[in-house]
Amino acid sequence: MTSLFREFRLAVDNFNIWSYLSASDVKNKFRRSKLGVIWPVIHQLAFSLGAGMIWAAVFHLKPEDFIPFLTIGFAIWGFISGSMMEGCSSFVVAHGYLKQLPLPQSIFIFRTVFTQVIYLAIGMATALGVLIYFGKLHPLGLLYAIPGILLLLGYSYGAIGTLAYLGLRYRDLQHGLAGIFSLLFVVTPVIYPAEVLIKKGLSFAIYMNPFSSLIEIVRVPVLTGGFANETHYIIAGAFALVLAVLRFFFGSRWGRYVPFWS
């Protein structure tokens, strides 16, 4: 617990550093682009509208119900997978700072977390626009989604913190995760309702998959104006806690080697 408080105290003390680095990462990604951060919005809308029309017919659902469902799921999934994938390179891309400056390693973890939060904010703003267009926005749903969003942020911190050390130690990990998340995208109810699996007797694929819970604790409140199933909150919270514990475990074990491995 002491390590956790110290971590967040360092984060607050160094907010100006990691927030600047994060904003620079986003800015550099779209440097010299005419549309800039509008591109993620275009990609999300193109996927959600195009795929939504097709899969709505496949699952016998109304497009006006399914497209908002898909848009929110796609935004959250981008945050979930991005936290894992980009977490692997948190220390790798910061090797210049790590080798030359005595900065806390948590700065580069929060740098990646904040970058992913920026993209999540863009994705959720796009999703809310789609909900408003289709008349599916529940104002109270945004309040009910706050606990889920907090758990999602806790997951991101734990995932990025853990993968920062593992990805630095094992450079092939990021490439392996790319294949794993391609499969997880299919088995996680991102592009189809969870009820599709439940009706086919495959509910274990939902409750044994913590990524499903991370999606449901945000998507269900926004779409329905109420809380998701309490089981999803328990699973998501436990998953975030395990990742946070692993982050401090690897940090205490490998932290002193980071400048040499980077």
From TrEMBL:
Belongs to the ABC-2 integral membrane protein family. The keyword Heme does not apply. The lineage of its organism: Bacteria, Pseudomonadati, Pseudomonadota, Betaproteobacteria, Burkholderiales. The chain crosses the membrane at residues 37-60, 66-93, 113-135, 141-168, 175-194, 231-250. It comes from Alcaligenes xylosoxydans xylosoxydans (Achromobacter xylosoxidans). GO terms for biological process: lipopolysaccharide transport. It comes from the Bacteria. Keywords: Membrane, Transmembrane, Transmembrane helix, Transport. This is ABC transporter permease.
